[in-house]
Amino acid sequence: MKKLYLPLILLCLLSVFLVSCQSHDDNSDIAINEPLYLVLDTNKALRNQEVNFSLISEENADFTSQANFLLMEI
C-alpha cells in the first residue's frame, strides 16, 4: 500500500511545482537604451492631493502610458 502512495504523492508534488512556476503575465519588458526622467506636475503636495507623474526621454518621447508607477508609503 505504501508503494502505491509514494509515486502518486511525487506525481502530485511535481505537477503542483510545474503549474506554480508557469508565468501568466501579459507584461512584456521594453528595452529602452536612453535616459528617462520622472516629471511631476508640482513641486509640493499635501496629503491626499493628486500628483501627476510623467516619464519622458531626452528627445521628449512620452513613455508614461507604458510605465507602472507604484506608491510606497513611508
Set out the fold topology.
Elements: H1 2-20, E1 36-40, E2 53-57
Give a quick summary of the entry.
The chain has one helix at residues 2-20; strands at residues 36-40, 53-57. The chain has a two-stranded antiparallel sheet.
Written account of the structure:
With 74 residues, the chain is an alpha+beta fold. It contains one helix and two strands. The mean pLDDT is 78.
Which terms would index this structure?
14% strand; 74 residues; single chain; 1 helix; alpha+beta; two-stranded antiparallel sheet
Shape assignment: elongated
| Percent range for β-strand residues | 5-15%
**What share of residues is helical?**
25-40%
**What is the distance, rounded to the nearest whole angstrom, between the alpha carbons of the first and last residues?**
56 Å
Overall residue-averaged pLDDT value: 78
